[in-house]
Amino acid sequence: MTSEKKQEYTRRIIEANPTGIIALTYEIARGYYADAVIAFKAGDRDTYRLEITRGNKCIEQLIMALDPQYTLSIYLLRIYNYILECARKASSMYDTKELDEPMDILKRIGGTFEEIAPQDKRGAGVQGGEEVYDGLTYNAKGRTNTTVKR
Q: What is the pLDDT, as a whole number, of residue 140?
């Protein structure tokens, strides 16, 4: 993942409500698995395994975010464990086909969270987040033009 992409995700996470953060976590996990496929095609085994590990950490965060008081959490836990199992197989067997279904699952469930995120009225999930400077530029006189997002 490029540093620009990381900055974009950081900004989006700071602005997102809790449901939006879950949707972004799905997107980030899918991105790491996609980066693993790119590394595989380039013949870079180390990066391949590293990106799978990063994707797995996102799934582990989703597991930690589950609320056991809801029945849906039980089903999501099963799905997350299945994704982790497939990803571990992909890493150990060096086979990207094992990532196809998990990436599809992440896209579908993540899309559902994206759809319902606007209905979540709890506000930003990151309270007291830092200001994110978007569009910091310098003109010929050395002055800056900035747009600050919170």
A: 59
